[in-house]
From TrEMBL:
This is GNAT family N-acetyltransferase. Residues 4-149, 142-284 form the N-acetyltransferase domain. Keywords: Transferase. GO terms for molecular function: acyltransferase activity, transferring groups other than amino-acyl groups. Gene3D superfamilies: 3.40.630.30, 3.40.630.90. The keyword Transferase applies. PANTHER family: BLL4206 PROTEIN, SLL0310 PROTEIN. InterPro entries: Acyl/Acetyltrans_Enzymes, Acyl_CoA_acyltransferase, GNAT_dom, YitH/HolE_GNAT. The keyword Transferase applies.
Length: 284
């Protein structure tokens, strides 16, 4: 049996670890890995050649929450408990911080997380979009404009009040990385919604989008999708029927879904009314 060694994953390991998500068919690119490894606690396993064969990561979203993701095991090393062992190590790190743990589970991953104390919050279909749908104007009293660096403090304050996640550093990273996808909605000079996104390995990911009303969120999604060529991915809680109808009309399909799950307590995380689109399973 090949000897395996557990190690911390560090930012300089981003390109080597990327092969794990490529093998799984996931959409992350090297920039995603480098960002998560810079800001999160990541563990991995290497074989005797120094190749990464498993990973897991906990990304802090304020003092009360960490987001778990990138639980990956290469095909040849599966069914040896590597992914579960790394996940438990990340959970121990989160517990030591006194924080709750959240994640977005695939259909295959959910049965693994339930016995570990996670519970379901809501379902999130993943939409595959080849092109932007028909333009959607915002409500008459709402202005859409590109998001500026100077908007980030207000946007982050707006976001935490509606998402329960303290992720201002993620929003700043995404706005800097793809300013063409970053939009803000204002009503009477106050933030009423925002959208950001990023390029991925195979598709552009649109989200998070957070808005006071679904109509505002849909207008933001329309503007962001129109700003770049497809294809796109967009994770939309299944309570947003208006957004789903618009996506279907544009020919989008939703072949699979995630389930948002939580271990511990974080009031407000279960509310999806204002969460029009997620940042993807790895960035919440």
């Amino acid at each position: 049996m090949t000897p395996l060694i557990e190690r911390d994953l560090r930012p300089q390991d981003a390109e080597a670890a990327w092969t794990l998500s490529i093998e799984a068919g996931w959409n992350q690119n090297v920039a995603d890995w480098r960002f998560m490894l810079t800001h999160g606690k990541a563990l991995g396993v290497v074989d005797d050649t120094g190749t990464w064969v498993a990973s897991a990561l906990a990304l802090p979203l304020g003092a009360r929450l960490s987001w778990l993701s990138m639980v990956l095991v290469t095909q040849a090393q599966r069914r040896r408990g590597l992914g579960t062992a790394l996940l438990k190590r990340c959970l121990a790190h989160v517990e030591a911080r006194g924080a709750a743990a959240g994640l977005d589970a695939t259909e295959l991953g959910r049965p693994v997380y339930l016995p570990l104390g996670f519970r379901d919050l809501y379902r999130i279909p993943r939409w595959h979009i080849d092109r932007a749908g028909d333009p959607v104007p915002p409500p008459a009293d709402v202005l859409l404009r590109p998001m500026l660096e100077a908007d980030l403090v207000r946007v982050s304050t707006f976001d935490v009040a509606r998402s329960a996640m303290e992720r201002g550093y993620i929003l700043a990273h995404l706005r800097t990385r793809r300013p063409d996808l970053a939009w803000i909605a204002e009503r009477d000079g106050r933030v009423a919604g925002y959208a950001v996104g990023r390029e991925g390995r195979a598709a552009t990911s649109i989200g998070p989008i957070v808005a006071d009303e679904e109509g505002i969120g849909l207008a933001l999604a329309s503007r962001a999708l129109a700003a770049a060529p497809g294809p796109f991915l967009m994770d939309v809680p299944d309570t947003h029927d208006e957004v789903a109808r618009w996506l279907r009309a544009a020919g989008a399909t939703s072949p699979r879904a995630f389930v948002r799950m939580l271990r511990g307590a974080l009031p407000g995380l279960e509310r999806d009314r204002h969460i029009i689109a997620l940042a993807g399973a790895e960035l919440a």
